[in-house]
Design a protein that fits this description.
This protein has helices at about 1-15, 15-35, 55-65, 70-80, 90-120, 125-150. The protein has about 150 residues and is mainly alpha-helical.
Length: about 150
């Protein structure tokens, strides 16, 4: 949906589509700065509810599908790396497969390691370092998008 929506917007906006790229880049930079400034908090849950595999899977799936930040991320990410006016149905299937494997695989990997990692990173300095590293990556993608858009103009 994001690919076809962006292709439609790119066609309708013509040369003004660069404005949307600037907004996407600025959003990524803002997201990175917010992460950088965020307070490092340790997670010490007092009570964890018992859940079944099915309920955990459905909760994760629905949260992922309803994540507006992911939609805005793709809004900022796709125009930087894809020519949206030339996407074919096969390209769409390839993008969906890559996203499903990469996002789904990463989430499964993170879920499997979450318990062990929570013991290792249950201190504020470690959490702060992780936030700063992630913030730099997000800011770098936003800057790349803005620079690429400027160079295309």
């Amino acid at each position: 949906m994001a690919v076809y929506g962006l292709a439609l917007i790119a066609t309708a906006m013509g040369t003004h589509f660069a404005l949307l790229k600037y907004v996407g880049g600025a959003y990524l930079i803002w997201l990175g700065l917010s992460m950088w400034r965020a307070e490092a908090k340790t997670a010490n849950p007092q009570h964890t509810a018992d859940s079944t595999w099915t309920s955990s899977f459905l909760s994760g799936l629905l949260i992922t599908l309803g994540d507006q930040k992911a939609i805005f991320f793709y809004l900022g990410f796709f125009p930087a790396f894809l020519d949206l006016s030339a996407i074919t149905p096969l390209d769409t299937l390839i993008i969906i497969a890559i996203a499903a494997v990469s996002v789904g695989g990463a989430k499964l990997f993170y879920a499997a390691l979450a318990d062990r990692a929570s013991r290792l990173f249950d201190n504020r300095p470690a959490i702060r370092a992780i936030n700063i590293c992630a913030a730099w990556v997000i800011i770098a993608v936003g800057v790349t998008l803005l620079l690429k858009t400027l160079l295309e103009a």
